[in-house]
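Quick one:
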Amino acid sequence: QPPSCVGNAGIVGQDRAMNQSSSRPNEYNLTTAQMKEMEEDVLVLLQELIRIPSVNFGEGKGDEKAAAEYCAAKLAEVGIASELIEAGPNRVNVVAKIAGSDTSRPGLVLHGHIDVVPANADDWSVDPFSGVIKDGYIWGRGAVDMKDMDAMMLATVRSWAKTGYVPPRNILLVFFADEEAGSVYGSRWLVKNRPELFAGYTEAISEVGGFSVTITGGHRLYFVEGAQKGIQWMKLTAKGDAGHGSFINRNNAVTKLSQAIARIGEYEWPQRETKTGGKFFRKIAELTGDVYDATNVRPLLKHIGGAARMMGATIQNTANPTMIEAGYKANVIPGSASAVVDGRFLPAFEGELVSTIKEFAGADIEVELLVRDIALEVDFEGPLVEAMIAAIAKFDPEGIPVPYVMSGGTDNKALSELGIVGYGFSPLRLPADLDFFALFHGVDERVPVAGLVFGVNVLKELLETA
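Output:
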């Protein structure tokens, strides 16, 4: 049997009965056996989800059908009805509505995505789709992005169904397709084509937040995603005079383009303070006794270990040239050359990104917008945030929740178009020496068994108190 987590995992006393007399509506305590069943369930669910290779190759090439059918079957197994919604061939989403005890309250969207990025098995030390438990971890593609959260969601609602528990507010449980390639067949499709599904829901929680990072001094912070950078993917095209490669050419499109993208790629963007970023770095400075300077928080990155990989990109706009295309023969100077730049902007700083790129490109180079997505920033306050903080405190009294800015994006961006306020909260307590951010889309992706058991208990607590 998979190991059950004890102590801080929240297992209650042997044979303790359900308690309806608490000040919390419909509060109950699971028996030890029921808690152990939920904890074992989340491990098996994650292993089995990993073994379904729901790989998203991009450009419309993906297949979430088997994973979606698995989620629907696991819900049906305990009497929870769901709808399979196909947005394209084999691009399948799962939606289930769980009624709360107070239907007058706005509902909460609990969502995850079931697609994963590709994995080259030759690079891994284990089969990336084995879901094997080794060295206290569950290994496999999707273990942290984000089938771990999918498994926690399933285990929680399955436990409710088995024990007859009713949450305090309506829950919309959604497993999206296509998050790893722009959500065209997932959240964006549902928001556009099935907006009625989300009527009456005002808040959401999902991935990339609620996990612990141990900083200087041994302080254990739980990063809650409260902001996301926006995206501008741009194509830069330079025009010039085509000609023989042996001639002198002062109007060479390749030369003009290369100079422009060198200026963009080498530019040191100024640091900008966002509301969320300011809260994050002030807390780092406070806990470590270091100095907070809003104009230069880079020195504080040394306190957060591997998390600096992402956080270093959230203190400024970024723009990275990623693709170049020019020419068709070695001795022919082409008449045009193009490059793609991946631009990411902080909330409220999109204008700075665009104007800077155009300035560095110059008047002779056309800048075309390929893809744009909004930046997000929500307040780290209110009943839902307070419930997150309390849930962490219950199972890790020394834990310190803090909001942070994410360098990428999640399905919360699509939901925001419907006015739904979203946070990243997929809780995990992680070993202090684990470089968690390196595991996202990385080789040997894995999640600690004890951390996952901790997470399902925290998630359950949050959903029963939010």
